[in-house]
Design a protein that fits this description.
alpha/beta, binds NADPH dihydro-nicotinamide-adenine-dinucleotide phosphate
């Protein structure tokens, strides 16, 4: 038997997981920080979540990230939930402790941490637009409400999903006015005046052939357009926004910042951001067309 200390194990559960950039980001971080650990992919089909997680825990894993479709259902397996996971209703990071698994949501904080570096204008007292009503949209909704937005317009292709999401978030923020509209140009144009930020949180843009979720030119000139989707080059929505003279960014900074938060949780030390950012740039360059990939 070798006398080498055993590598700590970390990884991502989801289905599918094969297109994830997380192994590249975290293995680069472990290397740069001199941490003796490895980050692996653990595909778990939806109908095997409980057994799949049990098997991974038996391997002695110390921490996990969680992606679609498990972010909400995995809550039932947690011994404890951090406030971030309770607010968003989803877990994307798990700390495996001696007492059991503790669930966190770092998407919300990752989004907030990205705003300054990207130069997004202040949200307090302002109107913002959120496109989409899935898991990422809910994290953004909570963030914008926490940051003091006065009005948040949610645009989704199905009103019911948007209504369900808003009814979960709105009661915690009585000072924020929430509006729900259909994700279509005419409706966005009606509600866009005065908006300082538009967050694109639908999965449109993962494939180059996807239509734009809406016409960026309908937004006011000073509006910052933040697309949470990221890919080999800037998304079509970001390209179109920039061509129209808007300030715009894709989801890579949020991807970096949510991973940085997971790193801090697991190791209680500052993450090597430059190494992680370089790993994202390399992984984005090497990425195959993300047909089914959605994971952060
Ligand atoms: P979900 O599957 O939970 O939600 C997907 C959303 O996209 C829903 O609102 C859905 O609307 C909408 N949508 C899907 N297809 C269409 C379409 N054809 N037209 C209009 N709307 C559509 O995914 P997530 O919320 O977890 O993720 C959304 C995106 O955000 C993904 O691309 C993901 O990569 C990205 N993301 C980025 C992160 C980052 O760190 N940068 C972190 C997390 C997510 P409907 O209700 O009508 O079905």
């Amino acid at each position: 038997m070798s006398g080498e200390p055993r590598k700590a194990r970390y990884g991502l559960i989801g289905y599918p997981v094969s297109h994830s950039m997380s192994p590249a980001i975290f293995n680069a971080a472990f290397c740069a920080a001199g941490i003796n650990a490895v980050y692996e992919l653990y595909p778990i089909p939806p109908d095997r979540l409980d057994e799949g997680v049990g098997e991974i825990l038996d391997k002695g894993v110390s921490g996990l990230n969680v992606t679609l479709p498990h972010k909400a259902r995995v809550i039932g397996l947690m011994k404890d939930l951090d406030k971030s996971a309770r607010l968003v209703g989803a877990v994307n990071t798990i700390d495996v402790t001696g007492q059991g698994m503790v669930g966190y949501n770092t998407d919300m904080g990752g989004f907030e941490d990205s705003l300054g570096p990207l130069g997004v204008p202040g949200i307090s007292g302002a109107r913002a637009l959120v496109l989409g009503a899935g898991g990422a949209a809910r994290a953004i909704l909570v963030s914008l409400a926490r940051l003091g937005a006065s009005e948040i317009i949610v645009a989704n292709r199905f009103i019911k999903e948007a209504g369900d999401m808003v009814s979960l978030v709105a009661p915690g923020y009585p000072d924020v006015r929430f509006e729900i509209i259909l994700l279509e140009n005419r409706e966005v144009e009606r509600m866009a005046p005065g908006a300082v930020l538009c967050v694109q949180a639908t999965s449109l843009g993962l494939n180059e052939t996807d239509p734009l979720p809406m016409e960026p030119a309908l937004l006011p000139g000073g509006c910052f357009i933040y697309d949470l989707v990221y890919g080999t080059s800037q998304t079509a929505f970001v390209r179109s926004a920039k061509a129209g003279g808007y300030r715009a960014a894709d989801g890579k900074e949020m991807l970096l910042r949510q991973a940085a938060r997971a790193f801090r949780l697991w190791f209680q030390t500052e993450p090597p951001l430059d190494a992680m950012r370089n790993a994202i740039d390399r992984a984005v360059g090497n990425r195959k067309p993300p047909e089914t990939s959605r994971q952060g």
